[in-house]
Amino acid sequence: MPSLFRSNRPHTLYAALIFLTVAILFGGASRYNVGTSIVPRLAGLIALTYVMWRRHGSPIRIERAALIFWGLVFAVPLIQLVPLPWDIWTALPGRGLARDVYTVIGVHPWLPISLSPSRTLDFLLALFVPLAGYVLGAHLDFAGRAVMLRAILMLAVVSAILGLGQLTAGAGSPLYFYHITNDDSSVGFFANANHLGLFLAGGIIIALAWLGDSMATTGRIVVPAVVAAALAIVVLLFGIAGTSSRAGAIFSVIALVGGLAMLPLERVGLKRRYVMGGAAIVMVGLATGLGLVLSGTLLSGRFALDEGTQERIGLLPQFGRVIRDFFPFGSGLGSFEPVFKSYEQAQSLSFGYWNQAHQDYAQVAIEAGLVGIALIAAFVVWYVLRVVGIWRNGDPSSRVRRQQITAALFMLLVMLHSAGDYPIRTGAIAAVFAFLAACLTAPQESRTARERRSRPRFGDKAFPGYDEQQDVVPGIE
After folding, report:
1. What residues form DSSP beta bridges with 461?
2. How far apart are CA 222 and CA 28, in angstroms?
3. Burial, 62: exposed, middle or buried (Cβ in 10 Å; 0-12, 13-18, 19+)?
4. Distance of CA 431 to the CA centre of its chain
5. Which residues pair with 101 in a beta bridge?
6. Which residue in 229, 239, 230 sits closest to 159, CA to CA?
7. I want to staple 143 with a disulfide (CB 3.0 to 4.6 A). Which of 2, 7, 275, 377 is the partner?
């Protein structure tokens, strides 16, 4: 078996690979009525059942904080689906219009907090996708997580190539997998070009991290690794260009800068002044190129600001009003579309409609109220503390540290994109994001690794030839 797959938890790794592939292939849309969304949910349930099956004798180990967080996340839609007496339900904020409708027809039923229970139930089922991604990632060792990251990179490259094929074939091509999609751009396995742009930018980070790992392991620049990483990045950049996504263009620059910063150039013999000078030249070049692209000077204005983006910005005050009207209980997870229709003004009506807020933090505040805001804040605090801990306490030469920084950078792109879109509402990115979050936790270790680290040492150093880091990452060459 190739050394790439020498994880100490191969069965969990295979389950994770299958689940991730299914999630990305079939979880590229966020709409309520997309039939393929059931596939990654079923895959998530099967994967969770498999991991929790105790026949392998390995315990289920998840951090207590994560267990509490996931419990609260699932509790929100469950509570929102509990029917309430009429008198209590009508006292909830934002129920005036629905109350008047029921009063006119002369019925006073028990009703749940959610104004769209079917959509909230759909949201609840969708949560099993990121939960499976997190649980699987939490039960992998370093080697298994490395394989998963490379699988994400491979799927990103394939998605970029598919997207370029879609763009070449034109609108109406059978290469587009979703009926409602950006059929004038590359979308790959997704329904939205912006989501593909984000996914490909994350792939750039992984490609450079893979190259950095090769350099750190060998202590030299390995030409095949450089060529492979360069080819992957070129394909990903062409894929991002095909999306016409401004977010993708910006994130590609962030990914390149962050990924290049992870390369252990000094370890392969490059002098520090050359490294700093080269980094400055690269950053200036990337910033200049990004400015030319976003201004429309390059690529024929494909990335220019359009009316839709301006409209999204103009709706922020209206979103604030909706949040205030339903605060603190929210309108129900998944209920944004029908709720927002009641707030649309006559002068702004068009043939299009808003199925999502394109500002996921505001949408969570609308749908989940105070609890949703608190959960987002708690996650951000956890993320910041983990990143600070990795940065301050980690060994700069540690391969685990580089893997965790890779995950943190990719997660940062997703969180930034959520401020102007809804990427994590797709099953594909939700699964990837949750897996990356698991990568910020300590990887699982085998008994052999623990026994090796317990070997006697001469003073503060191990026996000659003993590599403590290799114990944590068995099988990666």
Report:
1. 458
2. 35
3. middle
4. 7
5. none
6. 239
7. 7
Contacts of 19 (CB under 8 A, 6+ apart): 40, 43, 44, 46, 47, 132, 133, 136, 431
Query: Which residues partner with 458 through β-bridges?
Result: 461
Q: How far apart are CA 295 and CA 165, in angstroms?
A: 26
**340/97 Cα distance (integer angstroms):** 13
Domain residue ranges in the chain? 3-319+330-453
State how far Cα 451 lies from the chain centre. Answer: 35
Q: What is the DSSP string of 118-162?
A: HHHHHHHHHTHHHHHHHHHHHT--HHHHHHHHHHHHHHHHHHHHH
Contact 472, 8 (CB under 8 A): no
For the beta carbon of residue 20, count every other beta carbon within 10 angstroms. Answer: 26
pLDDT tens-place values along the chain, 477 residues long = 344 445 556 788 999 999 999 999 999 998 877 878 899 999 999 999 988 875 455 566 788 899 999 999 999 999 999 999 999 999 999 998 888 888 888 888 999 999 999 999 999 999 999 999 999 999 999 999 999 999 999 999 999 999 999 989 888 888 999 988 888 889 999 999 999 999 999 999 999 999 999 888 888 888 899 999 999 999 999 999 899 888 898 999 899 989 988 888 777 666 656 656 666 676 667 667 666 655 555 555 555 555 555 567 778 888 999 999 999 999 999 999 889 888 876 555 554 567 788 899 999 999 999 999 999 999 999 999 999 998 887 665 588 999 999 999 999 999 999 998 999 999 999 999 999 999 999 887 655 554 443 443 333 333 333 343 433 333 333
Question: Residue 325 half-sphere exposure, CB side, CA atoms within 13 Å?
Answer: 15
Q: Is the dihedral of CA 168, 170, 176, 180 positive or negative?
A: positive
Q: Which residue has the tokens 């792109």?
A: 413
- DSSP type of residue 302: T
Q: Which residues contact 78 (CB under 8 A, 6 or more apart)?
A: 124
Measured CA to CA, the distance from residue 230 to residue 233 in angstroms comes to 5
Torsion of CA 331, 333, 338, 340, to 10 degrees: 60
Q: How far apart are CA 32 and CA 16, in angstroms?
A: 26
